[in-house]
Amino acid sequence: MDIVVFGAGSLGSLVGGLLAREHAVTLVGRDPHVAAVRESGLRVGGRFDFAVRPDATTDGTGLAADLAVVTVKAFDTEAAGETLATGAFDAALSLQNGMGNEEVLADSLDCPVLAGTATYGAVLREPGEVECTGRGEVVLGPRGGGTADVADAAGRAFGTAGIETTVADDMPRRLWEKLAVNAGINATTALARVENGALLDGPARDVAADAARETARVARDQGVELGDDEAVNAVERVAEATAANTSSMYQDVLADRRTEVEAINEYVVARAREADRTVPVNRTLTNLLRAWENGTVEHPQ
Ligand code: KPL
Hints:
binds ketopantoate, globular, alpha/beta, 8-stranded mixed β-sheet
């Protein structure tokens, strides 16, 4: 399959590297990473140990492929959709944190857009080198009905590349469960400056569990059946599988970059407000991250 991976950050580089073992992959990202991949290939270390030579470019316009896998930060989704719309794809798949990314992509793209979640741990160690810090899984499926064959084909492409993949027909619930995982893990690890495994015991554990429980309650307000215990168990499962990982939000804080708090904890706060529900833990996490961004990041919004 011809696959474009749009967003060569940590997760995009890991997924792109794994896919490149079986498929013709083009990574779209930024220099100096793209320049290093073009010159010497992409090394995938940590839980894997191999090197591949995918195509790599900083210019995502006018590309064509069977599948576009979108791995950019949630706040860059609209721009990604507009750039991908200048090319031609049979299908697109969002593998991003936060909610509503598929809808944003579908506004720009003519092809079917699949929803997806990924719980692999990944850290870009240096240009041209990504480390897999935890084997998780990819879950993907149609956003609504009607694209099951497209989802099956994408699932097969991921599966043959050795990526643990489930094709699901209940993506709204899966996306809320992943939101609960990110609401629990990302802001907590970023603020406490700890790796994901620190949430398995110790003082930050309750913060993560409470943020996940609040998210599950808001999911139920939205008509999605996600139990409190399911959400907390999902946080624990992912924290265990990615114990050695620096969460993507902690990586952002370490690099003084804008975080995805708006698409994660702040999204939970906004949906809760609509249902007259208070979510104090998500609100506190949001406010602390926002305060840090306002004092550190040049243009947080
Ligand atoms: O999605 C992640 C992230 O860091 O953004 C997890 C799965 C929590 C891995 O750290």
